[in-house]
Design a protein that fits this description.
The protein has 114 residues and is an all-alpha fold. Helices cover 88% and strands 0% of the residues. The chain has two domains: 70 residues, no CATH class; 37 residues. The longest helix has 36 residues. The chain is extended.
């Protein structure tokens, strides 16, 4: 029974990771296409620097979480707090994005800014 639970957790985590990788690839593809079409293809290295920085930041945050909580057993005790903090962070981030789009409503203005 325990093996089946671990296998289902592994499968669920793998599918989530695959979905996130596909989303990241789509975003990178859109950005690269936009750079090429706007005759800024020489800036594509900066996208790859951003990808590397994102991966590095993800590893640092994962290491910090492992260091702070010290393992899965300790994490389970504080899971509700962790989820609450992430929900507040996500709400703040979405609020900033919405405010940005309200202040810059036209596509032309966004294109000129870019």
């Amino acid at each position: 029974m325990a093996g089946a639970i671990l296998w289902s957790d592994f499968l669920a985590g793998s599918l989530i990771g695959l979905r996130e990788a596909v989303e990241a690839a789509l975003i990178i593809g859109v950005l690269m296409t936009w750079l090429v079409r706007s005759n800024r293809g020489s800036l594509s290295n900066w996208i790859w620097y951003g990808v590397g920085a994102g991966i590095a930041a993800s590893l640092v945050v994962a290491a910090l979480f492992a260091w702070v909580w010290g393992g899965l057993e300790s994490f389970e005790e504080h899971e509700a707090l962790f989820e609450g903090v992430l929900e507040i962070f996500a709400a703040l981030l979405l609020t900033l994005i919405i405010v940005h789009f309200i202040r810059h409503p036209s596509a032309r203005e966004l294109e000129n800014w870019a």
